[in-house]
Protein 1
Amino acid sequence: MNEVIKTIYERRAVRKYNDLKINQDLLDLLLNAGRMAPSAMNKQPWKFYVITDEQLIHAFSKEISEIAIKEISHAKKDEVDKLNLSSYHMSTMTNLLKNTDHIFYHAPVVILITTLADEEWGGIDAGMCAQNIMLAAKSLGLDTCPVGLAKYINQAKDFYELNIPDTEKIQLAILVGYGDEDPILHERIEDNVVYI
Ligand SMILES: Cc1cc2nc3c(=O)[nH]c(=O)nc-3n(C[C@H](O)[C@H](O)[C@H](O)COP(=O)(O)O)c2cc1C
């Protein structure tokens, strides 16, 4: 396999990190890889908020768990259907969130990717950018996890410290660190191709 394909196959969502910090040169490489992503009409709509303060990351993580639990348990039936979560998944997720740090998993770096909220292709552009960051990280010996639940950070009491304008939408967080686990490979669904 060539190196790119190998990296694609080796990337996993990693949810346990060791204490090693990430130096600025590596972070710059990751952000520059993100910037190389394609974007609709070449708008490059992403913005990066890089959080490295351990205590702040942990405090946000704890608070987002609480917010997420409330949101999930208060979700009305049609919203739950939209989330495509069965009651089994709902209770599993709620239980998971109740234990320790299940949002940012003690990662040393959290990159929030935002775009303007009214950017038509913002979610897709941010996703492409995120994937570039995650593959670049893997190729450099780092691990990552994309975290959608980070969207609730805008309800946290210290959110103002991030100076994220309310015109922006938090599309995704990418956790970055040196992984301390070897997650299983989830089998990929393969009956999803239609040849015409
Ligand atoms: C848009 C998006 C949101 C995600 N949100 C979360 C999350 O909030 N918490 C989490 O632990 N993992 C999250 N994940 C990671 C997925 O659970 C993970 O990618 C999936 O289980 C496949 O595993 P793999 O990445 O190791 O192949 C998210 C992934 C994506 C693409």
Note: The chain is about 40% helix and 15% strand.
Protein 2
Amino acid sequence: MHVMQSSPGAKTVIDGKEVDYFCGCGYYDFHGHPEIIDAACQATRLFGMGSATSRSGYGDNPVLLEVECNAAKFFASESALYYVSGYLGNAILLQGLRDDYDIIFYDQESHFSVRDGIAVSGKTAIPFSHKDADDLKKQMALHLKPSQRPLLICDGIFPISGEISPVDDYLDVLAPYDAFTICVDDAHATGVIGEKGRGTYEYLGLTGPHLYSSGTLSKALGGYGGIIAGKTQWIERLKSNSIIPFAASPPPTPAAAASAKGLEILHANPQLRKKLWDNVHYVKGKLRALGLDMKDTPVPIICLSSAKINIEQLPARLLDRGIAVSRFYSGGQSYSSVPKGGAVRIAIFSSHTTEQLDRLAFEIGNLM
Ligand SMILES: Cc1ncc(COP(=O)(O)O)c(C=O)c1O
């Protein structure tokens, strides 16, 4: 086990040594951003660690409301719901939408939070092969009764493989049905893909009344807690249909204040997204030149599988050279979306310098 002894950023102190850091999900270096830390400290002095009650009574404070207001601005929606953890977003969506669907179809590689959310919903759920719209069609033909309304749920961006779900293809499969719903877990897409950073639907150019998503403020946005944006009436329905926002304490004040500030900074600084995408494009080009397959997407997650890389050795040998990347095993209790044989996951930040990206590619090339 390693110990992180600074805030995570392009340079991070691990086990007492500063390294070039390519792990985790802090794609904009926000977790140590001075304005975000100041906002968290200031709000905590004013409002304490939290309201010590759920939001149903006197539990709202100006910081929680500010997160929702900033999120509504960020996503160009009427309203937003801020809740205790991004992990619970899928459960909230599936409970909140319970009157709109009868049976769930889900990508079999979906994140744990999707599968736990399905369990909480109590509805029948059928898996389909990873990212496979043809299999979705097949499973729907096999399991959907004529009177039933389908709901599809999947990750927008898969956390380890960095793949984007082909939601446009899923929509083609579902469109012939009178009533259908699509839910996307946008934990890794929130603030990252789409012209304005609004996530998978924006990236794929999809809009429509049947499309819902949940996001997190704990990754790119530098705060903590889950966020769902949408029309006011619908957000109110989620609140009354799902027990989670009603019965759980809201996120603590410092996390909320950091989230509000993270949303504000990213919204006001589109150049950060551009810098992130430029860095992703640049380093993927370098890795492609080494003969590694790289999908041409703006996703800041690079997944090296065992086909060309010794994934057992690469992370330790890179760490010896002052570069931290993550290794994930496949099978058993592995993380969702790890390719067969395991993978090395490399996270790119907007704050990585060209020199850091060059050195990463150079050292990987040396170790191939
Ligand atoms: C796809 C996906 N969904 C949900 C979550 C949970 O988000 P949070 O950690 O902010 O609760 C994660 C966390 O890693 C994730 O990767």
Note: The mean pLDDT is 96.
